[in-house]
Design brief:
Structural class: alpha+beta
Oligomer: single chain
Strand content: 15-25%
Radius of gyration: 22 Å
CATH class of the domain at 1-20 and 28-67 and 169-376: Mainly Beta
Shape: globular
Number of helices: 6
Distance between the termini: 44 Å
CATH architecture of the domain at 1-20 and 28-67 and 169-376: Beta Barrel
CATH superfamily of the domain at 1-20 and 28-67 and 169-376: Calycin beta-barrel core domain
Length: about 375
């Protein structure tokens, strides 16, 4: 349950920050102390409000933002190369989203008098485990507004390529996604059906589960930082030489070093090595040196992300990003959307501390394997 105030949550022993294996001598004590002082800004209550301008004369991006939106990442095909939609279309999109989640909640049947779910699941894995008790719509909070940039509604977050859709993956990239999400796409028929095939199974060990199932990284902090189905709040704290971006999902912090040098290539990190510099009033962040598995689905250690953070006159933040990973995508792709300034707080999302589901998934797989005698009878449609 997300009940802890941020001031408390970040001071406890359960706080996790992305880090790579330290293999370079130039990761000095001075950096550790500098970062520690910056993180202290998160932990101390009663801190004064941040000014609109930092001590170095740069815009102060500090604050809490809501990145939720109903605008899709990839543009619906009916819009073609059209970057914008009309206000009427935007309103219809917002109403459609609200109706969808309302009906999803009403049809879920969350009352105590409901019948037991179908044994083995019903085959619908969109909302968790074949309809056997995943999240219902009460927990879903993707946002309620369409993205507006420069006074116009966007048809998608992605604007490059011109069709507003991520470019095709390479064969290697496609294989990575299938491997990384084997546990997600497995068709649950109530048996250990993966034993019908040679090679690793989707539930062999914690390492075969997706990163998000293991609570190592979330669905949205990337980079690039994407909207998610819930927990879309972000908090930025800025000093002259560091910027920290705290993501509610899954309670991780990215530390950006301003006007610094990238670590050696053998220092790999979940969120990459984040180096920032100012281009006028825009903070530009270059991220590289990723681990072989990243928070961006399918990406690998060759990922290079460029982000641009610009405060707008209304206090919101325009977030722009560009993705390059030639071993995974056949071309670069880019997008932008607005983070809305908010007076809300970012609460702890204790994903790992409450992740009993992962243990139970593995226990269930071992039980099914112990009951497995012979290949299950297959429907002829599966042949």
């Amino acid at each position: 349950m997300r009940k802890l105030n941020l001031d408390i949550a970040l001071s406890g022993p359960s706080r996790r920050l992305p880090s790579g294996r330290l293999t370079s001598a130039h990761l000095t004590l001075s950096r550790t102390l500098s970062t520690g002082c910056l993180l202290l800004a998160f932990c101390l209550p009663g801190l004064p409000a941040f000014a609109e301008e930092g001590t170095d004369g740069r815009p102060d991006l500090s604050g809490v933002y809501d990145a939720g939106t109903v605008t899709p990442m990839d543009r619906p095909r009916q819009y073609g190369d059209n970057l914008y939609m009309t206000p009427e279309e935007a309103k219809a999109l917002e109403e459609q989203s609200a109706t969808f989640w309302k009906e999803a909640e009403e049809s879920k049947g969350g009352g105590a008098d409901r019948e037991a779910p179908q044994k083995g699941g019903n085959g619908d894995n969109r909302f968790g485990g074949g309809g056997v008790g995943g999240y219902n719509a009460f927990w879903i909070d993707p946002g309620s507004e369409a993205v507006m940039v420069d006074g116009k509604f966007r048809t998608s977050i992605i604007y490059e390529p011109a069709n507003g859709r991520r470019p095709p993956m390479t064969p290697e990239g496609t294989a990575r996604v299938i491997s990384n999400f084997a546990s997600f796409i497995h068709n649950n028929d109530g048996t250990a059906s993966w034993l019908d095939h040679t090679g690793p199974g989707p539930f062999d060990s914690p390492e075969t589960l997706a990163l998000a199932e293991r609570c190592l990284v979330g669905f949205s902090e990337g980079p690039p930082m994407m909207p998610s189905l819930y927990n879309n709040y972000l908090r930025i704290v800025q000093t002259d030489d560091h910027v920290v971006i705290l993501a509610e999902m899954v309670h991780d912090a990215r530390i950006v070093r301003i006007d610094s040098e990238h670590d050696p290539e053998d220092v790999k990190k979940w969120f990459g090595d984040n180096i920032g510099y100012w281009d006028g009033d825009t903070l530009v962040v270059e991220s590289r040196n990723y681990r072989n598995e990243t928070g961006l689905s399918g990406a690998d250690e060759n990922l290079h992300v460029t982000e641009r953070f610009t405060r707008t006159e209304d206090g919101n933040l325009l977030y722009n990003f560009r993705v390059e990973d030639p071993t995974v995508w056949t071309a670069p792709w880019a997008g932008e959307y607005t983070w809305k300034a908010s007076d809300n707080k970012v609460y702890e999302y204790a994903c790992h501390e409450g992740n009993y589901a992962m243990i139970n998934v593995l226990k269930g797989a071992r039980l099914l394997e112990s009951e497995y005698d012979e290949p299950p009878k297959r429907d002829s449609r599966d042949d």
